[in-house]
């Protein structure tokens, strides 16, 4: 089984003057869990807002924090990133049109890393040049199962102050670009700082939890001119995702960096249960 880790919304450099800032420590927790608990990813996808200000020093800190994994790391920019600085830090070549997107060919699975950054805009962007590039990538491998990774989700999560409007032109353009491409097994995003799943145009879609603090789940409408005291950002602990490709389907797990207290282990007390479950799965048992 092919395992792919996804880390999103890290925001290194939020505390510019603190080389041990909380966002860096939260990322280090995720790295430690990926490296020590049998999750065994083959690669890591970084789906945007990797830094707070898009500066070289923050990307250098990020890369150093990820180094203990000793895995290929594939980034795309979010609205807090600088695509050129990011590409230089990771040794990526920008496309001729200047965008930082590309495809990764893995055993039995293709991953398209899509650049949805629109400088100066908090929400997503997907222009005609990007639509043509994505269409060409999908047309080039119609029989290969494909996962699309992008920063901005093209749907409303229900957290009003973070959500795009349904009528935004970039969303319609993205929808048209993927229409009819049946090889797309899922689309995974970031940006919203919490786990969310849906179907969009018949394609399974998910949002990865954030490495940085979470956006608080509060689905009621919000009035910018009426401060109602609601929580907007919460320390819910760092999170990430592990996508597992079994050759037929993608199974995606969100997980917390802190695994919590272990309440049971694979020891003698679990032997009888494990044998019972194995027998249930035996096709000879009916």
Write down the CATH topology: Purple Acid Phosphatase, chain A, domain 2
Using the coordinates above, name the CATH class. Answer: Alpha Beta
Looking at CATH, the homologous superfamily is Metallo-dependent phosphatases
Radius of gyration (CA) equals 20 Å
Question: What is the total domain count?
Answer: 1
Give the number of DSSP strands: 13
The SS-based structural class is alpha/beta
* Largest sheet strand order: 4-5-6-7-9-8
- The arrangement of helices and strands along the chain is EHEHEHEEHEHEEEEEEEH
Characterise this structure.
The chain is α/β, with parallel strands linked by helices. 24% of the residues lie in helices and 23% in strands. The chain contains six helices and 13 strands. Strands 4-5-6-7-9-8 form a six-stranded mixed β-sheet, with helices on one face. Strand 5, helix 4 and strand 6 form a beta-alpha-beta unit. Helix 1 packs parallel to helix 2, helix 2 packs across helix 3 and helix 4 packs parallel to helix 5. The protein is globular, with a radius of gyration of 20 Å. The mean pLDDT is 94.
